[in-house]
Amino acid sequence: LPHAAVKRQVSELRSSYDFIIAGGGTSGLTVADRLTEAFPDKTVLVIEYGKVEYAPGMFDPPTAEWGGAGPRAGSFIFSSLPNPEVKNKTAFVLAGQAVGGSSCINGMFFDRGSRHDHDAWAKVASLDPDTGAVRWDWDGVFPYYKKSTKFTDPTPGVVTKYGYTWDRSAYGGTTPIYSSFPPFQWGDFHVAREAWKDMGIRVVDDCAGGDKDGICWVPTSQHPVTAMRSHSGLGHYADVESARPNYDLLVQHQVTRVVYTDGISSGPPLVEARSLIDDSMLNVTAKAEVVISAGALHTPTILQRSGIGPASFLKTADIPVVLDLPGVGSNFQDHSGPRMSWNYSRPGNFSNTPSDMLDPAYAAKAVADFNMVPALGPYTLAMGNTAIYVSLPNMTADYMAIIDKMRTMAADDSAGTYLPADSDPTLIAGYKRQLSVLADFLSNPQAPSLEVPFATGTGFVNINLHPLSRGTVRINPSNHLAQPILDYRTGSNPIDFDVYLAHLRYLRRTFTTPTMQKYGAAEVAPGASIQSDAALLEYTKETMGFSYMHPCCTAAMMPKHLGGVTGPDLKVHGAPGLRVVDISVLPFLTSSHTSSVAYAVGEKAADIIIEGWRE
Ligand SMILES: Cc1cc2nc3c(=O)[nH]c(=O)nc-3n(C[C@H](O)[C@H](O)[C@H](O)COP(=O)(O)OP(=O)(O)OC[C@H]3O[C@@H](n4cnc5c(N)ncnc54)[C@H](O)[C@@H]3O)c2cc1C
């Protein structure tokens, strides 16, 4: 690391910093990179729980067990509370614990939110562009999606082979967070795509430009030549090109609290951290601001330990209330959905398929191919590159029954009964606002409700992009420094089950398309015998994937009277000198995987902060 200082010892730290960033993950390092670049005379300290990993590709596919349970190094591993609505099952969730955060361990699927997500986000957050408010609608965020990644065209040979399409006008960034298409697809990559075309789903050249209802090729966050994972620990730290003596990183420290020494109006707060090596504590002073970027599962823990959160909960956890902010750790969401599978009675002669990786000779060649320059072979594929995004109106003629239920719930007093019992009235008001905006959103034929990604083989992952159930992330009252308690509450709003069923009924049509029938496709799960709503509901509960590793929204950007935690400038309501910049600030999930959103939030936040401090 020739240009950036890695601080491992407390004695190496400066006596104070201009900016302190709690969490060196996807968003946090984006902000650190931009601030140190914009202000060479101001110092920035990032305090990160995990380790710094020098070698690009530390978490790349060749080091992982093929087809295994996925990466574990550099991860927080969670098991949620049992879900009463879903047979008391628990969610298995990972989050990144390394310099680079979850971008070090994610599936590298690099799609973006749709324009309708961001326009709805701005509505929920009560942002009216005509009033001069910071814009988080599509026009306000699209430039930051563009800025946040460097896209490289695939080679002509690869384009001809797989038919990749893209729209150059959706890109244009130069920062070394790479986005590219892999030089490999499994032999059956075209089957699901063709079947979906049979169903009338439109083909979109590139979904990165905001319009993503259709079949899309989705780039991978990987280097265009080496196919190595591109993550923020590289692109916004180790690979930063210019010298940055003002950019310090303290690793293996847990930010425990922010402390307002002279009361809440005395910001910026001190930052208190604990060494994970010897348990010693330290305080660091921020002269300008503190930015919390610890991700959706840990940002609320830092706030709650600091006495910033729902007063009723803080009291039960024996934490003095510094600021009653009911939204901290509320509004917890993740993508979820049941799976489907089928088999073929006349399988195509596809060369090659994932089962070839069970052949040691093929697997060894795959590793050798990946290590070539340029990289080749199956390991360049990460988790796949194709997906459909489908709206409710394009899925079922009955969609208005779902929308009407949402509108009724948003308008009457029942909404609160679907939130945790101790929810503050402001949270209920905010939830009603969300239901109302999401009802408009989901009735829009261009706004996706279902995503099916990674479609090769004989199984589908069905993602409900906009679940209505809301959970909580709270510190463990009996051990504040332990990992937080995740209460997913999946299915606590019963309308979600209507949506899962609509998705299943729609998607099972895939198996009867001419393309699938050419190979003798037959549905295995749910299976031909599972037809009634009751049977499908039972199937859904049995096979539900609770988390597609996109936890979000636990410090939502909404007004305080609607249960929000941050304003459009990412400042925590009522807490001077303190911002949250990470995936926690989303009011609700975007129609996408979330790393691109975390980068875009980081880029936009950095511009807001720079603007505020430019002399
Ligand atoms: C297994 C997995 C697969 C995924 N697959 C995809 C995918 O294919 N495509 C996609 O777009 N998205 C995917 N995601 C989601 C995406 O990567 C995340 O939403 C995004 O990276 C989150 O960014 P963030 O900045 O909010 O948090 P993170 O990047 O997680 O950063 C938070 C950082 O804070 C640190 N931290 C936590 N607590 C403290 C503390 N108290 N003190 C100091 N530091 C702390 C953590 O160690 C971490 O480095 C996946 C996520 C996971 C975990």
Please explain how this structure is put together.
Helices cover 26% and strands 16% of the residues. It is an alpha/beta fold and 615 residues long. It has a single domain (1-64, 86-615), classed as FAD/NAD(P)-binding domain (3-Layer(bba) Sandwich), CATH 3.50.50. It contains 15 helices and 23 strands. The two termini are 31 Å apart. The strands form seven sheets. Strands 1, 2, 3, 9, 10, 11, 12 and 23 form an eight-stranded mixed beta sheet that branches. It has a four-stranded antiparallel beta sheet with strand order 8-16-17-19, covered by helices on one side. It is globular. Flavin-adenine dinucleotide binds next to helix 1, strand 5, strand 10 and helix 15. This is GMC oxidoreductase-like protein. Substrate binds at residue 548. It comes from Decorospora gaudefroyi. One of its GO terms (biological process) is secondary metabolite biosynthetic process.
DSSP strand count? 23
Q: What is the CATH architecture descriptor?
A: 3-Layer(bba) Sandwich
The whole-number mean of residue pLDDT values reads: 93
Please report which band the strand proportion falls in: under 5%, 5-15%, 15-25%, 25-35%, 35-45% or over 45%.
Answer: 15-25%
Shape: globular
Q: What is the CATH superfamily label?
A: FAD/NAD(P)-binding domain
Spatial gap, N to C terminus: 31 Å
Summarize the main sheet.
8 strands, mixed
Bound ligands, each once: flavin-adenine dinucleotide
Total number of helices: 15
What Rg do the Cα atoms give? Answer: 23 Å
CATH domain class name: Alpha Beta
**Which class best fits the helix and strand makeup?**
alpha/beta
